[in-house]
Design a protein that fits this description.
Elements (H helix, E strand, L loop, with lengths): L19 H10 L17 E4 L14 E4 L1 H18 L3
Antiparallel strand pairs: 1-2
GO molecular function: endonuclease activity; nucleic acid binding; zinc ion binding
Pfam family, one: HNH
Protein name: HNH nuclease domain-containing protein
Length: 90
Amino acid sequence: MGMEQGAPQEVHIPGAYITDEVMRIVLERQCHRCAGCNAPLTAGSTHFDLRQPVIRGGAHTIGNFQALCPFCHRNLMRRFRDRFARMNRP
């Protein structure tokens, strides 16, 4: 049973990977634009990630997913690594 286009944003996405249908919903919600810089997204270079990581209390739901261009995804990952490194310093 698939999700409908107007599916609630709180629907839990099981597992570590999102489906093609969830990717489609996220891309349509963002008008196929990067959540970070608003650049147009292409099929081969779009990264999907959680806005709020699970480790920081974020939910694994459609509403918490975002689509990013490679540049914004790389910067987001760098910021998360820096933040976690600061948290783990003695």
